[in-house]
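step 4 of 6: structure.
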Amino acid sequence: MDNKNSISKIKEAIERSNEVLDALADLYKVFADATRVKILVALTQSEMCVGDISEFLDITQSAVSHQLRVLKTGGLVKSRRDGKTIVYSLADAHVRTMIDCGMQHITE
Amino acid sequence: MDNKNSISKIKEAIERSNEVLDALADLYKVFADATRVKILVALTQSEMCVGDISEFLDITQSAVSHQLRVLKTGGLVKSRRDGKTIVYSLADAHVRTMIDCGMQHITE
DNA sequence: ATAACATATGAACATTTATTCATATTTTCA
DNA sequence: TGAAAATATGAATAAATGTTCATATGTTAT
């Protein structure tokens, strides 16, 4: 049957791009937490140090630090040292695009 | 200080859109699993019944059914009955856009 | 050098999540 | 009607995840 055939073609396509799709899921995972989303949206407005984020999200400095590590490992933020503090900012324009894309789905 | 001031402005903005940002994180959560991503990408190509998906992803029918429920609750897929089988398809164009957006980040 | 400050890290704990197994539900067809 | 087929559901289990607490690391200024 033709349907059977096209299904198996799709199966092959999915299997071929298996690693990419795993990576895609991993990317979404980084966005899939309210704390991290809020950090990212905040960084959309301005670069910020850990203390600032901790204060305005009302969560422990430690929790922020842990989440920033997830974001950095995921390639969504970068950091630079400025004296005693460490300043975080969005890694690139893609991050903004991803957020906008999700926002559009929400506020359709 | 001006920086202090702008931080508190961002804090207020984040607090105002608190529910939206929670919803945004929840939306990403639905995408944040390899099985679900593969189901979605497959449905990008063609509508499909549970058995087909189960077969070509090599996972239990039950697992597929559970994940389809997550996708449906999240508003990403819809279903219709066709005889004994139930056919699933993408809920709307936004889903495709979200996937493309993530893909672009991966394969930059 | 040392005290004070900012951030990072590791272990522990509670919560969430994905899968499997067994079974229920719904529809078709003989 | 009753058996077979397709899907859904609930309980159980294992794995992953987010936060907190305590502490380590690294930087500045005295």
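step 5 of 6: annotate
 - The two ends of chain B are 39 Å apart (CA to CA).
 - The first helix of chain B runs from residue 2 to 16.
step 6 of 6: archive
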